[in-house]
Specification:
Length: 247
């Protein structure tokens, strides 16, 4: 398993363990809103909206909820904006935090407070971004798909790596080929559970279990913030660490 796919797989496992439905729905609702704001409410002509709706379906968000968010976003000007923060958790673990917010001052204050409270440090933009690569990560349920045939068919669309893990194909895609692969899946009439752009660490850092848990608790606190959409890090997280988190 490549480093990229390993990281994505671990992130998916942790996400499944930590998932809070209300937070998931809120996160995806914001993504739908920003997609409508950028490209309009017609998903046929708005790839970002199409992806957000697909992700909403992947977490079983009710159709009525999806339509309500789209209608509301198309009727209101809205002032959601995308902001990012970079910094370090203890032990030198790099953090890249993506937010969607309607109040930048509130978000800055909240993020800074978490860093300070958890002995981390907020850094300037560009301080850690070079430690990550922007890639597309698509999760597809295996279902009745033949693994070998599926890989052969999709590889020409620009897939970098495909790993079968716990009944799901984890597909890693270079940023420039993300749209092509999603289009190929549509042509194959395959509905992903999730498709998103992630920041994959170029290299990961290994800590002791006790140290790793301390860092993961900081990451969880960021993820619980209503304005935070994603937290990316370069901590090496294995099954032993995940098991210790659940104790």
């Amino acid at each position: 398993m490549s480093g990229h796919s390993k990281w994505s797989t671990i992130k998916r496992k942790k996400g499944a363990a930590d998932a809070k439905r209300s937070k998931l729905f809120s996160r995806i609702s914001k993504e739908i809103q920003i997609a409508v704001k950028e490209g309009g409410p017609d998903q046929e002509n708005n790839p970002r909206l199409r992806m957000a709706i697909s992700n909403a379906k992947g977490v079983n968000m009710p159709k009525d909820n999806i339509e309500r968010v789209i209608n509301k976003a198309s009727k209101e000007d809205g002032n959601l904006q995308e902001v990012t923060f970079e910094g370090y958790a203890p032990y030198g673990i790099a953090l890249f935090i993506e937010c969607l917010t309607d109040n930048n001052n509130r978000t800055v204050s909240s993020v800074r407070a978490i860093f300070n409270r958890r002995s981390g440090s907020l850094a300037t933009n560009g301080s850690v971004s070079f430690l990550f690569e922007r890639k597309g990560v698509i999760t597809v349920p295996q279902g009745d798909l033949n693994g070998e045939e599926f890989e052969l068919e999709i590889i020409d669309a620009g897939v970098e790596d495909v790993v079968l893990e716990d009944g799901f194909f984890i597909i890693t895609v270079p940023l420039e080929d993300f749209g092509n692969v999603r289009k190929k899946l549509e042509e194959m009439e395959i509905e992903p559970e999730n498709a998103e752009l992630q920041r994959i660490p170029v290299e990961t850092k290994t800590l002791s279990i006790e140290e790793a848990i301390k860092v993961l608790k900081i990451i969880e606190e960021f993820e619980d913030d209503d304005d935070v959409q994603n937290v990316f890090h370069n901590l090496e997280v294995d099954d032993e660490v995940l098991a210790a988190m659940e104790e």
